[in-house]
Amino acid sequence: MSVLFTSISENNPVKSGDAEALIQPLGLTIDPSESNDFQTLLAAVHDCAEGIAALPDYQPVSDQTKYPRENVRRPDKDEQVLGQAWAHRFLIRGTPGGVLTGKSVSLKDVIAVAGVPQLMGSDIIPSWTPTTDATVVTRLLEAGANIHGTSTCENLCHSTSSYTSAQGVVENPHAAGYSAGGSTSGGAALVSAKLVDITIGGDQGGSIRVPASLCGCVGLKPTYGRVPYTGIASGDAMNDHVGPLARTTMEVAACLDVISGYDGIDDRSLGSSNPGSTSFANTLEQGSRRLEGFRIGLLKEGFEHGAVASTVQQSVMTAAKKFEKLGATIEEISLPDHLHGPALWTIQQRIAGAQTLLGQNTGRRGLCMTEMEQARLPWTDEGFQRAFPSTKNVIINGLYLMSQFPDLYGKTVNIGRQVSDKYQALFEKYDAIVMPTTPVVAPRHGKRGLPVESLQPSMGLTINTAIFNVTGHPAMSIPIGFVPAKDDEEIMLPVGMQIVGGLWQEEKILQVGHAWESHYEWTKMQFTTERN
Question: What top-level branch of life does the organism fall under (predicted)?
Answer without folding.
Answer: Eukaryota
